[in-house]
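User: Some background: our group keeps a shared notebook of sequences we're curious about, and every so often someone picks one and asks for a predicted structure to add to the entry. Today it's my turn. The entry only has the sequence so far, pasted here. Could you supply the structure so I can complete it?
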Amino acid sequence: MAVDPEDEEFDLRVSLETVAIVIDHAHAIQEEDETDADEDADEPDGSDAELDEESLSAFISELNEEEQTALIALAWVGRGDYEAEEWEEALKVAAERGAGKDTATYLLTMDMLGDLLGEGLAAFGIAAEEIER
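Assistant: Of course. Here's the predicted structure to add to the notebook entry:
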């Protein structure tokens, strides 16, 4: 079944605010990881990045299963594994593959998670920068 993001009945299954929070945290982690890589070896190893990862992991873990599944599917759309019109299929596969697994760990191992989620939103005509936080 094709999904039309312009349809008022369209349901992303996760709030835009939640997606924006994950995007912001993921970008912060990525920036800290890049900064840590550029710093001297004498500096402590990414303690801020580790705290941010723990915080983001806890936030994702507190979401309900449907919201977690939607984040995975949205990242897959952003990565190009699915088109926006294949949203229901992406959700179905994400739910099947994610059953009983730690969604937060899976998402945090994705390179450029914030960008993937932003691209996923863009596929639905939603600009992450315009979401109120």
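Suggested note for the entry: Residues 16-37+45-130 form one domain. The two ends are 32 Å apart (CA to CA).
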